[in-house]
Amino acid sequence: MLDIHQYEKRLENARERIRSLPDSDFLQSFIDHLRALGLSTCRAAKYANHIYTLMRRCPFDPQHATRRDMENVIVWINSQPYKSSTKEDLKIVVRKIVQYAKYGSCSRKTPLPPEVSWFSVNRSEKDSRVKPDSLLLLGDVKAMINAAENERDKALISVLFEASLRQVKY
In this structure, are residues 54 and 74 in contact, taking their beta carbons and an 8 Å threshold? Predict the structure, then answer.
């Protein structure tokens, strides 16, 4: 498969940066664990970059982390000028890395340690997939075309509908 986004290179670059951090062997084994769980190279590269950011800016010891340590990390994350999705991703990384440090795994079946179970991770992203009930019916489009005031608006509605390349419910 052609890697036009160079995720393998991005992952290796992130791993190289992580080697300069304390506990780099543990952090590298965490990334290897993620790959063993089936995470894609793209997702692993994202985790690795977040790990580097967290451990460089707000270092903590995942193996001996206390709730107070995690509160400090979450305060730091929340104080950053990142988008909310980035903040949520960083919180997920904190959760996963502490889970791995405490229980040896961060799979879905592994329980959350109490040090990180207290904060929530809200994925507020909308589902961008088009569902059949959100599509316009052909009759709805015809009604809009008939209600349009002039030929230009009728043509615009028709072109927008036809060019959307979505299925029509009849």
Answer: no
Residue entry with tokens 């592994």: 110
3-state secondary structure 85-120: HHHHHHHHHHHHHHHHHHHCCCCCCCCCCHHHHCCC
Contact 14, 49 (CB under 8 A): yes
Candidates 63, 74, 53, 58; CA nearest to 118 is 74
| 151-163 helix and 138-147 helix, angle to the nearest 10 degrees | 160
Name the residue with tokens 């991770």: 121
Q: Model confidence over 29-73: pLDDT tens digits? A: 999 999 999 999 999 999 999 999 999 999 999 999 999 999 999
Query: Are 18 and 52 spatial neighbours (Cβ–Cβ below 8 Å)?
Result: yes
pTM of the model: 0.71
Q: Where are the domains of the chain?
A: 7-117, 132-163
